[in-house]
Amino acid sequence: MTAAVSTIQIFVHGSVAYEVAQRAAGYDAKTWLSAQGAYGDSIIASGAHPTLIRIMVEAEGPHRADQNERLFDSGLRQVLDGLAAALPGG
């Protein structure tokens, strides 16, 4: 059980540290998208990775203001589901 608690603590700590670092650097989703724009355009233009291109074109997540909250919720749910599956009878 100690390992499970540690896993949750590490996930939460990492998520918070990431968001604090983003804010301290003045780096948000809009800034990141702007910085990646030309590279993303080159991937799309190449046509070399159709699945990645579809994900990039259809993506709404990176454009929403609540990106960090959604990523945290999704990640925590995956961590908890994984821990639950590891329990006896899970």
Automatic annotation (TrEMBL):
Gene3D superfamilies: Tetracycline Repressor, domain 2. Residues 3-86 form the Tetracycline repressor TetR C-terminal domain. InterPro entries: Repressor_TetR_C (IPR004111), Tet_transcr_reg_TetR-rel_C_sf (IPR036271). GO terms for biological process: negative regulation of DNA-templated transcription. SUPFAM superfamilies: Tetracyclin repressor-like, C-terminal domain. Keywords: Transcription, Transcription regulation. This is Tetracyclin repressor, C-terminal all-alpha domain.
